[in-house]
């Protein structure tokens, strides 16, 4: 008896409750070419994930052309010239950290090329010290030319994602974001589009990654360079964007089982490229295309890393 009137009432209510004003964001930070490199600090630190890497300082990076800027390009690369002494330090590379901290808003990355190759472990992500108290958001990360990108959150205990009902095109591989379980795998979403990562990403001319963070959710989008569905405002890097028009995200992290503002604080953007280590090294043997051991490969085959570079068109943040 009640079912029909209640459903009718709910429909009427929801049509009144539906948002009528779109959320529009305005450009606050526009990093292109040299201004992109200038907005970041070079972190010449030991890789906390034990990679076969030597993160160099700015002077070394510029002198060796490991970072390079032109009007519309910012390139970050690893060394592809040196055979390494097995008893010495790892392969030269860079780890950049944004000088500014961000919280809510939208960030768009126009990426023409990302590092590829056996042993590589590139990442574009956000976090702040002390990890993991204010959370970590991984936008683009993978190892050894794996088939797909993973977008992943890592948090203190108490943040999880529901097993079903998430409006996204990617596939959840872990639902609990708690860093203390599953070997700190985090709550990852696999972006089941080959163009989302590695050689196919590069073959297509890269594309755009974007994420939106509010107090209620974190959404990630990806469009390959030639996708018809890329919003014109993303392609153009417009002064305002409206994510309501962007379609279903590749990854959706909502707040039904995670109080987003409690687990995510102000973050810096990090761009880094390491080799082997806790992830790329530990699963290296699962990649038949990757010869020998990871560390030997990285030590002895500099020319294998000529494609181990990021080429950014821009990074833009909107609030
Ligand atoms: C530095 O790298 C850029 C980007 O890959 C390249 O275009 C340029 O020729 C390089 N410069 C030198 C001196 O090798
Ligand atoms: C980058 O550094 C962070 C730690 O600071 C680490 O968690 C991440 O795995 C590193 N990734 C790469 C690609 O170096
Ligand atoms: C999922 O999100 C898209 C894009 O915002 C929207 O058009 C669609 O109606 C949503 N689907 C569901 C089941 O909520």
From TrEMBL:
GO terms for biological process: glucan catabolic process. It comes from the Eukaryota. It holds the Pfam family GH16_XgeA. Residues 1-22 form the signal peptide. The keyword Hydrolase applies. Residues 18-288 form the GH16 domain. The lineage of its organism: Eukaryota, Fungi, Dikarya, Basidiomycota, Agaricomycotina. Transmembrane segments: none annotated. Gene3D superfamilies: 2.60.120.200. PANTHER family: GLYCOSIDASE C21B10.07-RELATED, GLYCOSYL HYDROLASE-RELATED. GO terms for molecular function: hydrolase activity, hydrolyzing O-glycosyl compounds. Keywords: Hydrolase, Signal. This is Glycoside hydrolase family 16 protein. The keyword Disulfide bond does not apply.
